[in-house]
Write a structure and sequence with these properties.
single chain, 434 residues, mainly alpha, Growth Hormone, Chain: A, 18 helices
């Protein structure tokens, strides 16, 4: 009975969450494809573009916790629909920015409105799936990011050719991609339910069995009376600081490439916006294949730190090589770097998962994720400043390479077992992370 209920939940909600994640990712990173257009039409230079790209992550970080609290109050169905509706409206509003100030405001608001989406989905899984099934569900959900990184380029590139009604192609791109999020909201509200007993597609027996198992797991957690430490106590643990630095270094490189790669591709020659989108997909296709390959190797030949260090050094080498030769050589080097930083982002998480007490793992992993994602603010901001002042992002690429090398060294100082762990102890239950 439990197995059939779990299977129905996965079939009902996972495809929708994957689609939501895809449109979420596209609305977040599509400005990378319109940078030159906005510079030509609005005078938004490299420094302003970099700051605006990064401000998204400031808004996201500031409002993530309040959004999660409101989700629990209003229910996942209403709140996830609200999140998607408002981020879609703001994404559409990007079509009407007039200059640097409005660009900053809209990017910050996009982060504010998107805040809570990922942890909201995670919370939804805790209310609908037993603990043993959540990791599998999260793996499927996170595949939306991989799919989006591949298809966002061609879709956005094609939309940039749309014209009419006195609007530029980049304005139509924002309107159409943001409008897709708004249009999907009606289906999201219709399709999702906040509570198991509201799901008419489950039989009464399945509802009772599933809700009973999840309630029993919750009672077991509450019986442990675990007090979650404050953020200050967590940051006093040097191991957690090490984890934060490593993931920050990975995120720094990922977002540096994400927001600047389309501009680098344009320098390769007389390429159209659609061709830029196609080229932009290549590093992500290669990196996703490499990510699964390295995961298989790490599972077979144990030593997680060594594998993370290897992939970080690959990322560093690619970023360093991208500063030499012409634009085509730089693009090939970025493809090589992507193999490293995408694999590192996946191989890193088992290290803190193994170190942490499973009872506080979720809170600490969220902290590591939040601190790490500040790389999404730092990388584009620094890149924009450097290009504005020096006419080149070469210094930024050197910085990413150096940071990756340092992280490759630091990772060997990261514990893979908690203090007091004995060889015969059972491994801790891993928690999903973004």
């Amino acid at each position: 009975m439990l197995a059939s209920a779990v299977a129905k939940v996965k079939r009902h909600v996972l495809p929708l969450f994957v689609v939501m994640f895809i449109v979420n990712y596209i609305d977040r990173v599509n400005i990378g494809f319109v940078r030159t257009h906005m510079e030509t039409d609005l005078g938004i230079g490299a420094a302003a573009y970099g700051l605006g790209a990064g401000l998204f992550f400031v808004g996201y970080a500031l409002f993530e916790v309040p959004s999660n609290m409101l989700l629990q109050r209003f229910g996942a169905r209403a709140w996830l629909t609200r999140i998607m509706f408002t981020w879609g409206l703001v994404a559409m509003g990007m079509a009407f920015v007039q200059g640097e100030t409005s660009f900053y405001v809209m990017r910050f608001l996009l982060g504010v409105t998107e805040a809570g989406f990922y942890p909201g989905v995670l919370y939804y899984f805790t209310q609908w799936l037993p603990a043993s099934e959540r990791g599998k569900a999260m793996a499927i959900f996170l595949s939306g990011s991989a799919i989006a990184s591949i298809i966002s380029g061609p879709i956005t590139g094609a939309l940039l050719s749309v014209t009419g009604l006195g609007l530029h192609g980049w304005q139509w791109m924002f309107l159409i991609e943001g409008g897709a999020s708004v249009a999907l909201c009606g289906f999201v509200y219709y399709w999702l339910q906040s509570h198991i007993h509201e799901a008419k597609w489950l039989t009464p027996a399945e509802q009772t069995t599933l809700s009973g198992v999840i309630a029993e797991e919750q009672r077991a957690r509450e019986a442990e009376h675990v007090v979650k430490p404050s953020i200050f106590k967590l940051l006093a643990d040097t191991q957690i600081l090490v984890f934060c630095f490593i993931f920050f270094s990975v995120a720094l490189t990922i977002y540096g490439a994400t927001f600047w790669l389309p501009s680098m591709i344009k320098k390769m020659g007389n390429v159209s916006d659609f061709e830029v989108g196609l080229f932009n997909s290549i590093p992500w296709i290669i990196s996703i294949a490499a990510m699964y390959g390295f995961a298989a190797l790490a599972a077979r030949f144990k030593h997680q730190q060594a594998w993370v260090a290897t992939t970080l050094l690959i990322a560093a080498a690619g970023m360093f090589m991208s500063t030499y030769g012409g634009p085509v050589f730089a693009f090939v080097a970025i493809c090589f770097a992507a193999v490293g930083f995408k694999a590192a982002s996946a191989l890193f998480w088992p290290i803190p998962q193994a170190y942490l007490d499973a009872r506080i793992a979720a809170a600490v992993l969220a902290l590591i994720n939040s601190v790490g994602n500040l790389g999404g603010f730092v990388a584009p901001t620094v890149f924009g400043f450097l290009e504005e002042k020096t006419g080149s992002i070469q210094g930024g690429l050197y910085g990413l390479a150096a940071t990756s090398v340092l992280a490759a060294i630091v990772v060997f100082f990261a514990r893979t077992r908690p203090r007091g762990h004995k060889p015969d102890d059972k491994p801790l239950q891993p928690a999903a992370a973004h």
